[in-house]
Amino acid sequence: MKNIFDLETQNNSLDGKITAGFERLSQVFRVLLWEKAKKHDLSPIQIQVLIFIKHHTKNKATVSYLAKEFHLTKATISDTIKILEQKEYITKTVNANDSRSSTIELTAKGLEMVLVTEDFTNPLFDLVKIVPEKEKLVLWKNLSSVIEQLHYLQVINVQSTCHNCGYFVQQNGNNYCRLMDIQLETKDIRLDCNDHKPVRL
Ligand code: SF4
Questions:
Q1: pTM reported for the whole predicted model
Q2: Strand order through the sheet with 168-171
Q3: Fewest CB within 10 angstroms: 56, 60, 126, 143, which?
């Protein structure tokens, strides 16, 4: 069976080149994150968890949610949380009303760590910034569509995008957010929204 790593398949097909391009980009992020991890004596997942906690609501900072978000087992996330707690980057407090749940928060030291690591995506961010606006819109439209389909196929677990939000409606070919009561143009479609309301697939 042919695949994109077969150079004949890849070089004779635009589909193969685009897919290989995505694969190359995933390597880029892995390398950039590893550089930060080595520099700060943390693992890539420890850095990702800290960054995630900083930018999301408290109800998402749970072992179950993080396990889904990062496609890892709850045991792996629990170990990650334990190490981050030992290194004093986070605090974990068991909720008084329900001993099975706990609140995970960044400490001041954790916040400092996020501030020096969360820019690991900047080399790509800087390149995207200089792409002409029209081309960016086409890129975003296609990229968000690919992500939506990967979520539908359950390749990507958690998605807090407009396309699978309970507040998202389509009318007369236009997209709307009922929560904010606004029309959503391509540039407004969100990949990760803290107001997202999950809907069943
Ligand atoms: S609440 Fe957020 S995710 Fe949902 S439709 Fe509105 S902007 Fe999109």
A1: 0.91
A2: 168-171, 174-177, 182-184
A3: 126
Dist. CA 148 → ligand 1 center (Å): 14
Helix (H, G, I), strand (E, B) or coil at 23: helix
Ligand 1 pocket, residues with Cβ under 6 angstroms: 162, 165, 167-168, 177, 179-180, 190, 193, 195-196
Reduced to 3 states, what is the DSSP secondary structure of residue 169? strand
163 CA to centre of ligand 1 in angstroms: 8
Identify the structural domains of the chain with CATH numbers, from first to last.
Answer: 7-119 (1.10.10.10), 131-188 (no CATH)
pLDDT in tens, the chain (201 residues): 679 999 999 999 999 999 999 999 999 999 999 999 999 999 999 999 999 999 999 989 999 999 999 999 999 999 999 999 999 999 998 888 777 778 899 999 999 999 999 999 999 999 999 999 999 999 999 999 999 899 889 898 877 899 889 999 999 999 999 999 999 999 999 999 999 998 865
